[in-house]
Design goal:
By secondary structure, the chain is α/β, with parallel strands linked by helices. It is built from 13 helices and ten strands.
Length: 342
């Protein structure tokens, strides 16, 4: 038997008894039992129909609201409620000395008023209050210059290289994935576009891998920035609040964050920094896979993804050749090597 059906039956019995008693009370000492029975049946019907609206339906509504509420906001509301009840309890004693029933009424009104006031103030000013508390906690600096937390954005999770980096121990502190970043990943994974859908699913898989294999702690956080819709803007403002860097490989986010004084750890810059250095005159083996922009050029890639442009390499497409480095060019997109066949 479901809980809702059980409550309906209990409500039906309770209101049926109440209707019976009401009928006896209204009719006097010798009531017409048909009249009493009609009120009893009416009470039973009302109990059967209305019980869920005062029991299970409000409970389900409240549970859904609590699930949607960010953890920080829920904690602020609970703290505000406790503070309001403490204030009401301190005022209850002097109010109880007032003449009855004024003292009792004011005590009850004080509980309602200060409970609501405490919750409202804490929820409205939660960001400022928690920022003050977190600012008083000492930051633990690590080898990478990060503090207690580093924030991950959507692009770096989809990219996947963060999963390998997290296993090396180079990232200090706890990696935080805000709930709005996770929601964006889910939105991309549900896209009707095949490419976007695959990228979103790859991001979710990488996040699961991070949770299972990462040496650096990783946590999903419900911290949010209200009244801001764009995910990048939310991430930058949250990073400023936490005094935490952002790990990304998004060029635009990188520049906007730097302009606002937020430290950025760019995966692409890290990858470029650890690539093997090839100097002009050195030789290497490269497989030519396509033609270049200029006539006769061939293009290949090293194992680390570095693009190699080979002069007169078009005729070697599909072959692995030995080439001599002629020039190394560093660009915003990465390192590019120019070479010629030997």
């Amino acid at each position: 038997m479901g809980i809702e059906l059980l409550l309906r039956l209990l409500g039906m019995v309770a209101l049926a008894v109440a209707g019976w008693q009401l009928g006896i009370y209204l009719a006097g000492e010798s009531p017409p039992y048909l009249y009493v029975l009609a009120l009893s049946l009416a009470g039973a019907a009302l109990g059967l129909l209305l019980t869920p609206y005062v029991t299970t339906y409000p409970f389900h509504w409240l549970r859904a609201k609590i699930r949607q509420m960010p953890a920080q906001q829920l904690l602020a509301a609970i703290i505000g409620l406790v503070v309001g009840l403490i204030i009401a309890a301190l005022l209850a004693l002097p109010l109880s000395l007032l003449p009855s029933p004024i003292g009792a009424v004011l005590s009850f009104a004080g509980v309602i008023f200060f409970s609501y006031l405490g919750m409202a103030v804490m929820v409205m000013r939660q960001r400022d209050i928690f920022n003050v508390l977190s600012a008083r906690l000492p930051l633990r600096e690590g080898a990478s210059g990060a503090g207690r937390y580093v924030l991950l954005d959507t692009s770096v999770i989809i990219d996947g290289r963060i999963a390998d980096i997290s296993q090396t121990g180079f990232i200090a502190g706890t990696m935080l994935v805000p709930r709005f970043v996770l929601n964006e990943l889910q939105h991309i994974a549900d896209s009707s576009d095949v490419l976007r859908r695959n990228r979103g699913r790859r991001g979710l898989d990488m996040l699961k891998r991070l949770q299972q294999e990462s040496v650096t702690p990783i946590r999903i956080t419900d911290m949010d920035i209200e009244d801001v819709r764009e995910v990048d803007d939310k991430l930058i403002l949250l990073a400023k609040q936490l005094h935490a860097p952002i790990i990304t490989n998004d060029y635009n986010l990188n520049r906007v964050a730097e302009l606002q004084g937020v430290q950025v750890l760019n995966i692409n810059e890290l990858a470029n920094a650890v690539k093997a250095v090839l100097l002009p005159g050195e030789t290497m083996q490269v497989r030519i896979i396509q033609e270049g922009k200029e006539p006769g050029q061939g293009v290949g890639y090293l194992d680390d993804g570095t693009m190699v442009v080979v002069e007169d390499g078009r005729k070697f497409i599909g072959q692995t050749i030995e080439a001599e480095v002629t020039k190394v060019l560093q660009t915003a997109a990465g390192r590019m090597i120019f070479a010629r066949p030997l």
